[in-house]
Structure formats: C-alpha cells, structure tokens
Design brief:
By secondary structure, the protein is α/β, with parallel strands linked by helices. The chain contains eight helices and 14 strands. The protein binds ligand PMT. Ligand PMT binds next to α2 and β11.
C-alpha cells in the first residue's frame, strides 16, 4: 500500500482509500457461526470507478466476495449462460468459447475500461472478512497513506460491526444448541475514526458514512460524528433510500443529493454525484459543491 501510494503521489495523482462491504464477527474460535450485516459493497465498488474516472488511484479495502468495481455489473448473470461453445468436432480441436454480448450487455466497454485501469495500476484491491482483519488493515493503510500527507483521502463506506466478542471470551468449539437458548454478551468496538484522524493520517481528507433506519435521528448523528472526530465530511443515508438519496454534511454545510426519476431512467448512480462533490470539496474547500444549505 505504501509503494502504491508513493508511486501515484509522485506521478501527481491523489490516492483514495475506499472501505467497502460488511464485517464478519465470529462467535466461536473454530468458527461455525458469525454475525454479519446487510452491506453489499455496491456503494464502495461504484464509487471506486467514479474516483478512477476523476483521476484518483484507489486502494479498495473490501469484504471478500462483496461487489467489486467493473465486475459488479455482471454479478447476477450465470457465466455459463453468457458463453457459447463452438466447433471442436475434429480430434485434437478443443473448439472456441465466444461471449454472447446479449447476455452480457456493455461487456466490451466495461472490459476495455477494466484493462486500461489494470494497465495503469490505478486499482489496488485488498480483502478482509472479519472485523479484526478490517481493523488491522485499515490501520496499516492509514499509516502507509500518511506518507503522502494531504494527497490522501479516506472514504469509509464499509458497514463495520460495533460489537464483538474478545478472543479470550469466545468458546473454542461450536456452540451447542443442546445447552438451550443462546445469550451473548458483546464488547464495543473502539471507534476507529478517532485515531485515524488524530494520529494515523492527520493530514488526510476523511469522509465517513452514517447509516440509520430512523431518518429522524440521522442528521443529528452525522453532525455529532463531525463534532466528535473533526474530520471533513459525513455522508448520511437511510437504509431503504440509500440508492437514491443522501445528505452530505460538513462542519459548515449540509447538502442533499437526490436522484430524480429521469436520472434513474438514464441509469445515473448516486455515487457519481457523491464522488464529484467530494472531489470538488477536496480540491477546493471553498467550492460550492456542498454549499447548498437545507433550512
Ligand atoms: O454496501 P451497500 O449495500 O451499497 O451500502 C452502503 C452503506 C449503507 C453500507 C454505506 O453507505 C454506509 O452508510 N456505510 C456506513 C455504515 C455506518 O453506519 O457506519 P457506522 O455508523 O457504524 O460508522 C461510522 C463510520 O465509521 C463509517 O464510515 C464506518 O465505515 C467507520 N467505522 C465504524 C466503526 C469502526 N470500528 N471503524 C470504522 O471505520
């Protein structure tokens, strides 16, 4: 991560670390069961594409098997339905496999872009599964990115568990249902934003996310996070409307980003708006990107 960051910073590029997907919290040391959450990783994966389009190099710290930039568009398709086997009748002729572009719409365009990105080494994927892997890798990433100072951005879209069972309190073997109903006591996960902003990467531009299911407490929680951690922005969203509506809160401003029906028809994604606004705000803090106040 440090080599990737220095390589791109020396080439004059900004580097963003995107966290994406949910975390897994094991209930047993030889894990059979774990607690998880809803996050698909779509926010992180699509934002990675828009950041690359805006000239950034991206470290993509994502949950194993969550959505991934570029391939995310084809995840619901059975690969074997998209391929056709041709020829192969004669002995020694292994035939050819061709892509059915009707089953994989836009595949040529997406593949071309993916190859360009790979060739330019603009995307560094790093995987985590458990909460402890996430915490360890985020700290390592922050320390690697601190070397490029204000050229680094953190875009923390992952849905990280707030609760865990410490290794010392975890049963080694599978919890037995014959012991009756299960009662769990979980410890609080330390809030990582505090050391990230204050110690690990104090010069970086940090955007956190806040998700609630109760819209009436969302903005208050977002503002409280900014007051507590003093980072640059919080993207606030509600579970059910998160694909079409977010509020970006900074210390001085608050702006709604909304997709209209027309946007949805044209397949515009809200992440494009979030990334464009974030980039303007980062490149020029006085920019009007997030200046629209809500009364
Ligand atoms: O993946 P999708 O299905 O597309 O959904 C996207 C999303 C809803 C998950 C995303 O938009 C989002 O809101 N992510 C943050 C969820 C949340 O409420 O996080 P939080 O309140 O637990 O944490 C606040 C911030 O600190 C988050 O940016 C989180 O990534 C970060 N955090 C939290 C705890 C912790 N120990 N470490 C952290 O880095």
């Amino acid at each position: 991560m440090a080599a990737f960051a220095s390589f791109h910073a020396e080439a004059g590029r900004k580097v963003v670390l995107i966290t994406s997907g949910g975390t897994k919290v094991p209930l047993e040391s030889r894990t059979v069961r774990f607690l998880d959450n809803f996050s698909s990783g779509r926010r992180g994966a699509s934002s990675a594409e828009y950041f690359i389009d805006s000239g950034y190099a991206v470290i993509f710290l994502h949950r194993h098997r969550s959505l991934y930039p570029y391939t995310r568009m084809f995840l619901t398709i059975n690969m074997l339905d998209a391929l056709e086997f041709q020829g192969g009748g004669a002995p020694g002729n292994t035939g050819e496999v061709v892509v059915n572009q009707q089953v994989l719409p836009n595949i040529a365009k997406v593949l071309k872009r993916y190859e360009e990105v790979k060739k330019s080494r603009l995307l560094l994927p790093i995987e985590f599964s458990t909460l402890s892997e996430y915490l360890h890798l985020l700290k390592a990433a922050a320390q690697a990115l601190s070397k490029i100072g204000s050229k680094a951005m953190f875009y923390l879209a992952a849905a990280v568990s707030d609760f865990y069972i410490p290794a010392s309190e975890m049963p080694e073997h599978k919890i037995q249902s014959s012991n009756g109903p299960l009662q769990l006591s979980m410890k609080m996960v330390p809030k990582i934003l505090s050391p990230l902003v204050k110690e690990w990467a104090p010069q970086a531009f940090v955007i956190s996310f806040k998700l609630e299911t109760d819209a009436s407490i969302l903005l208050d929680k977002a503002r409280r996070a900014l007051d507590t951690y003093r980072h640059q922005a919080v993207v606030a969203n509600v579970l059910d409307s998160r694909r079409g509506y977010v509020v970006v809160v900074t210390l001085e401003t608050q702006a709604e980003l909304i997709l209209t029906e027309e946007d949805v028809k044209n397949e515009v994604e809200i992440e494009e708006r979030i990334v464009i606004g974030t980039d303007s705000c980062y490149s020029d803090p006085k920019s009007s990107a997030y200046q629209r106040h809500i009364p």
